[in-house]
Amino acid sequence: MSTLAHRIQPARELLSPSSSSSRDEIGQILKRENDRRSVLITWQKKDEAIDSVIDAFRKHQKPNWDGYGAAPLSETACAEAISFLKKLPIAIPSPEVIPNPDGDISLEWYLKKRALFVVTFSGKRLISYAGVFGTGSKLHGTEIFVDSVPSPIIENICRLLSLG
Length: 164
Description:
Number of helices: 4
Largest sheet: 5 strands, antiparallel
Low-confidence stretches: 1-17
Order of helices and strands: HHHEEEEEH
Structural class: alpha+beta
């Protein structure tokens, strides 16, 4: 029997199944459990994204890793990307991790054709970003990254997600 069933079964035994308040209470219990699981799944995905950064760092340490003269990934760039991922609000889905041939590392949120947002870390406490939000709507910029995720980055990720 699942953990959820174990937690809910005692509530069902205490409450009369015919009463409306019993159904409401059981519904609230189910909703809280579902919300809790959603948070756990989101954290698990963030951990997977962090693991992907670590994996990329390990796999892209040799010069010319792409066969076209790529530089090894920068350890400080990867550390910044991990710090960024840890500081992202929980509601933001995890991105794809992309190693860059100049030694930088990028995180990409791809929604659909002509709807994506990318942040790039160089290890210099600067986040370069670019986004495409449909035909004719694009932007790019740079933000300082020290203690928290800069608000323009959050705003543009949310802007992208609203297109979905």
